[in-house]
Recover the amino acids of this structure.
């Protein structure tokens, strides 16, 4: 096998490990003294590189646009959910990556919000969640049991997703419009489902979000809070003029 073929094999294996987000396998792709250089950091050594992968959110939607190999050097151009454009250069030594340079162009607010909306509308909830920063600040308006500020993905998943699990038919969301300017975006949509206490028909959703480094870092969700109370929690809303 030629050096070019071996380099191609190793880099493609590495790409597969990135897609599966197998941290242990990713670490083994690198030489013990490997160097990774990006726009924001220089990381030296296999353990440090593995630690940087462990702290990062998984890469989703990875698509290779082009790949070029020559001897022990390879270059790939790709995009994913978080990056509108990226290019990595590799130098392979003794069957492992010895040097990697990384250059990425993060998607603007419109691109990231549009991908989030597409995932949500298609029922790809986990892919939509992957676009949220691990420390996202997610707020739902109102004073319902679901309302309030969720600090980080862990709290968001444990509180909101647990409540949504009680829905016989979780809302199927339709995203209709994305309006964006610089780091801000608003997604407008609607949703229909079946709550624990009745039909859940949100005619108007609005998610106002802020994007940084290709991730959604802040979200404020606007919706009909009366519907949340009645369909999700069985509250009975009585107008003052109708009360005894």
């Amino acid at each position: 096998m030629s050096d070019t073929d071996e380099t191609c094999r190793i880099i493609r294996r590495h790409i597969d490990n990135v897609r599966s987000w197998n941290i242990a396998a990713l670490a083994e792709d690198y030489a013990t003294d490997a160097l990774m250089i990006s726009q924001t950091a220089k990381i030296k050594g296999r353990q440090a590189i593995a630690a940087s992968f462990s702290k990062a959110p998984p890469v989703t939607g990875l698509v290779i646009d082009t790949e070029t190999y020559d001897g022990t050097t390879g270059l790939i151009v790709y995009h994913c959910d978080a990056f509108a454009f990226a290019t990595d250069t590799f130098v392979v030594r003794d069957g492992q990556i010895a040097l990697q340079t990384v250059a990425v162009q993060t998607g603007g607010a419109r691109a990231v919000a549009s991908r989030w909306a597409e995932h949500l509308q298609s029922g790809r909830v986990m892919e939509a969640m992957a676009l949220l920063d691990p420390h996202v600040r997610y707020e739902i308006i109102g004073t319902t049991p679901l309302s309030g500020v969720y600090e980080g993905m862990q709290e968001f998943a444990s509180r909101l997703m647990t409540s949504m699990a009680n829905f016989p038919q979780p809302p199927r969301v339709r995203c209709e419009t994305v309006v964006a300017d610089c780091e801000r975006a608003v997604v407008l949509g609607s949703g229909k489902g079946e709550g624990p206490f009745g039909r859940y028909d949100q005619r108007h959703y609005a998610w106002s979000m802020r994007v940084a480094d290709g991730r959604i870092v802040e979200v404020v969700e606007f919706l009909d809070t009366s519907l949340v109370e009645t369909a999700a929690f069985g509250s009975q809303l009585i107008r003052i003029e109708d009360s005894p």
